[in-house]
Amino acid sequence: MLIDEDRRKEIYNIAFGFLIDHQISTIPVWTEDLCQMLGIELVKLSDIVQNTGFTKNKIFSFWGNEDGALHSFGDIFRIAYNDEKPIKRQRFTIMEEISHKLLKHYLDSRFNIFSQDYDEATYRRYEEEARMCAGIIICPPQYFYEYKEVMSKRMFKTVYNVSEPCATTRIDVFSKFEKEIKSSYLYDFLPTIKVDKDYLENALFA
Fold first, then answer.
1. Fewest CB atoms less than 10 Å from the CB: which of 25, 32, 92, 145?
2. What would you measure as the largest C-alpha separation in the chain, in angstroms?
């Protein structure tokens, strides 16, 4: 892990502050709604290919990956994402890019959708920080801790609407850092989480 304890605690507080400020109290958390709330435009890979004539590989070379990237210009933010990936992967990618904004990575002049030219260690650290922040927002941990004794991986995947690899990682992180996460001065102010009943009924009987 590239993030030390002090930085992890900063990330918890940023993510918790976001959950509290926007009173996010229902899961699944829908990333499209968050983008609308934050004034972030979503741009699909398929639209970029169609409108620019660039190949996918050329676009991936800009992004530095095949999932997506955040672009900022002044106060304008756009998230480009690969709409050919599975839906749950797309959701987490978008949440990661939102997290880059919340963590202010975009203030690094090297963090640019057209020229991500920082060193590999910096890139990996930014990505790890964004994944941690994204994991907390898309899977608010207070719900997991409330039902930890009965929370199977299958239940986690279903209620949070995430992939199995994401569920595995989040359960591991929430379990490993439980004491640290709960020690945040903002933890007790987090909204009580409920599951969207209509979503859950559809998910269980799909």
1. 32
2. 52
pLDDT at 122: 80
3-state secondary structure of 38: helix
* Separation between Cα atoms, residue 57 and residue 136, nearest integer Å: 31
CB atoms within 10 A of CB 38: 14
The one-character DSSP state at 192 is P
Instruction: Report the amino acid identity of residue 53.
Output: G
Number of helices followed by number of strands (H, E) in the chain:
11, 5
Residue 188 near residue 19 (C-beta atoms within 8 A): no
Contact at 8 Å (CB) between 64 and 49? no
Confidence of residue 121 (pLDDT cuts 50, 70, 90): confident
Query: Is residue 171 within 8 Å of residue 156, measured between CB atoms?
Result: yes
CA–CA dist 168, 105 (Å, integer): 26
pTM given for the model: 0.92
CA 123 centroid distance within chain: 16
Q: Which residue has the higher pLDDT, 120 or 166?
A: 166
pLDDT tens track for 43-76? 999 999 999 989 999 999 888 889 999 988 888 9
Whether 93 contacts 68, CB under 8 Å: yes
Q: Phi/psi at 59 (nearest 5 deg)?
A: -65, -40
Strand partners for 106? none
Are 16 and 190 within 8 A, CB to CB?
yes
Helical residues (DSSP H) of 64-119, grouped into ranges: 87-102
